[in-house]
Amino acid sequence: MVCVSFPPLIGFTTLVTLCGFAYGMQGFYIALAGSVIGSAVVFSVLRLLFSKRIRAWSAQNEKWQALEAVVRAKGLPLMILIRVSPFPPWVYANSLFASIEAVRFWQFVVATVCLSPKLLLHVFIGSKMAALADGDERARMDTRDKVINGLLVGGGIGITIFTSWWVYKLVQDHIRHLHGLPSETDELAAEAIEEYEEDAPLLRSLSPEIDHRDNRSVA
């Protein structure tokens, strides 16, 4: 879980579900510890290695300046909303917060802990999938129990999809209608989150200088 917290790796949600699959509801504590430790390590490493690059890049990007202004103005409540939102995904959200200088480490950790209900839901789905996958346990179930477990898995997935969509819309509406800042700033900040995977300063594999050298070599 710590390893897949580094961008651009994937599989975090699958591992959380596997915690429930392997350990039942007790897997929630493993998932919570892994998410907090993994995200904290990513935040610290990216801040330590790329702080100068972040400042240089954000100084030339209007959308990023707008996002920093919005986060600075709204503080922890907005950070929690962005953290719970499905976009940007887990690994990109880790680098997103590391890229915003206004975000303090303790705020990032608190926002990550607020993911607990979402983690609990994924662990629950995993535990019910394990009950259906275990041949001995499934043999002890009657049809009614199997149907109930199947419905719980399907319902959990449905709730996850709906709440993810709802939170994402809430984040976008919240940013676009933030009081005390120009509407242009709110709009640019919302666009920065939507396009983060393409424009993030810590995820672009090549610097402008390297791109320039590559272009000259091709020419």
Automatic annotation (TrEMBL):
InterPro entries: Golgi_membrane_TVP38/TMEM64, VTT_dom. It comes from the Eukaryota. Residues 199-219 are annotated as: Disordered. Residues 209-219 have a biased composition (Basic and acidic residues). It is a multi-pass membrane protein. Belongs to the TVP38/TMEM64 family. Golgi membrane protein involved in vesicular trafficking and spindle migration. This is Golgi apparatus membrane protein TVP38.
